[in-house]
Amino acid sequence: MGRRKKQPLDEATRAMIIHTAHDLFMEQGYRSVTTRQIAEACGLTQPAMYHYFADKEALYTEVLRTVTEDTKIAMNSLAASEGKLRERLVKLVAYILQHMPDDLSQMERDIRHELKEENRQLITQWWRECYLLPLSSLFVEGQQTGQIRTAEQHGLDPFAASFTLLSMIQRKPGGPGSSASPIPVEALATRTVDVLLFGLASEAGREEATVQIKGDENG
Fold first, then answer.
1. How many CA atoms lie within 13 A of 197 on its CB side?
2. Non-local CB neighbours of 141 within 8 Å, separated by 6+ positions
3. What is the DSSP letter of 31?
4. CB burial of residue 133 (10 Å; 0-12, 13-18, 19+)
5. Average pLDDT along the chain
6. How far is CA 16 from CA 12, 46, 68, in A?
7. CATH (residue range 9-53)
8. Which of 6, 23, 110, 123 could staple 30 via S-S, CB 3.0–4.6 A?
9. What's the DSSP call for residue 180?
10. Residue 56: its pLDDT value, please?
């Protein structure tokens, strides 16, 4: 008797598995979620789900690939949209705040401790493409138009500036650890961008610092 042919994969079912797994992983973390739990939530048996994904890690990696691909498309679109540099940076940060996991630290721990090295490297590359590159493209544009200092002018490298901005986005408004009355996303995004672009000093403080710098240079 010949081998039984594999049944063709149903894309709607595959998408449902990814969507369901995404919600469970983001709510409970990688370790707490089982493939049986995901299969039951999808109305499938475990063997049927394994027809689509070899194991939990393969499914988790595909969930993150799907998320980062959607993010890359949205971030690149916002970076290329009309508007001033600061306005577009605010849009990008607002998008990140609106779509980041409620518990980003949990997801970072899962990636670091639960996944194989090759999958961690893939996710790092996807993260770079969906977050770092769109942001750095705006910093490069700002340097080319004279709005942001170049490295020769004691400014930040565009990639370093992007890393700095991302590190300032610590948690999703309204997520775990947030205050009872979170700042609106647009306001928080604006404040975050302005701290990086203009610093924490007031107008008077910036004038005083400028005088001090000029004095140091002349001295």
1. 18
2. 85
3. T
4. middle
5. 86
6. 6, 14, 17
7. 1.10.10.60
8. 110
9. S
10. 97
Residue with the two structure tokens 């001295």: 219
Q: What pTM does this model have? A: 0.82
Alpha helices, DSSP H, located in 29-103: 35-41, 46-50, 56-79, 85-99
The half-sphere exposure of 93 on its side-chain side, counting CA atoms within 13 A, is 31
pLDDT for 3: 45
Where in the chain do CATH 1.10.357.10 domains reside? Answer: 56-175+183-218
**Lowest model confidence (mean pLDDT) among 87-91, 117-121, 155-159, 177-181:** 177-181
For the ranges 74-83, 150-159, 176-185, the one whose mean pLDDT is highest: 74-83
Domain spanning 56-175+183-218 has what CATH number?
1.10.357.10
Q: Which DSSP string do the residues of 109-142 spell out, in sequence order? A: HHHHHHS-HHHHHHHHHHHIIIIIHHHHHHHHHH
Give how far Cα 12 sits from Cα of 38, 53, 73, 196, Å: 16, 14, 21, 43
Cite the residue boundaries of each domain of the chain with CATH code 1.10.10.60. Answer: 9-53
Q: Give the tens place of pLDDT for each residue, 199-216.
A: 876 666 555 655 454 554
Q: What percentage of the chain carries pLDDT values higher than 90?
A: 66
